[in-house]
Design goal:
about 270 residues; alpha/beta; Rossmann fold; 10 helices; 15 strands; HAD-SF_hydro_IIA; HAD_sf; Haloacid dehalogenase domain protein hydrolase; phosphatase activity
Length: about 270
Amino acid sequence: MSAAGTPAGPPTGTVLLDLQGTVYAGDGLIPGADEAVRALRDLGRAVRFVTNTDSQDSASLLTTLRRMGLELDASELFTPVDAAAAYFAQHPGARVHVLAVDAVRDQLAASVDVVGPDDDPTHVVVGDTRGILTYESLDAAFRPVLDGAELVALQHGRWFLSGGRPTIDTGSVVAAIEHAAQVSARTLGKPSVDFLRLAVGTVSPEPPPERTWVVGDDRSSDVAMGRAAGVRTVLVRTGKFARQQGDRDLPDADHVVDDVTALPALLEREGGG
């Protein structure tokens, strides 16, 4: 093992673990989640914590997770903001207007040319807007898109649980601009297959799909992404599970377990990934 707890040798597979509702709930870890992660590493699996969290910069989220007691390296965390930086690295010359909280805007500004809405942006990025969203800021993001700028959603979630209560998510704000401008946003977070591929691409050597697992509580994002990418999927009965139970419009996972603590035994039993 490395100092951070990651496998020292080449990984035998990769596990993409959702965070909220899967590894932690509220302000604390799901009981036994930290031991489960260590067990996965002991089995030789590379672990990537993949999250649609777009309300914090990656460094702050890393600190939050460590304070909860989760042992992880910065390289193991992958967020939509990381995906956006990777995306714009492939688009030199991009001029990006950001509708998101300051921490996210500042992280993007470290590697991307962030401009105002009247400075001819080529792209408009929408992330978490809690505390900053106004009619004026929404219009400022909408107008460049109407003029041809590409609309980029850090993630497209409809809602999430905050303090146990359903809360409007980024995707619902993006939908307003999509509807007004009659465009479809490029989504960089879950359930985008590109998000999965970028996350898996941080593992060396990169594992084949049959040795890659996606684990989460959300059939509309975690399971949908995994199924679209052709990898194995596991749904946990924590987080959003109960609210989505019985929804026939959502994809089913390959496996359903009570919580993340059942994952190491499942992987051993299945013999893959």
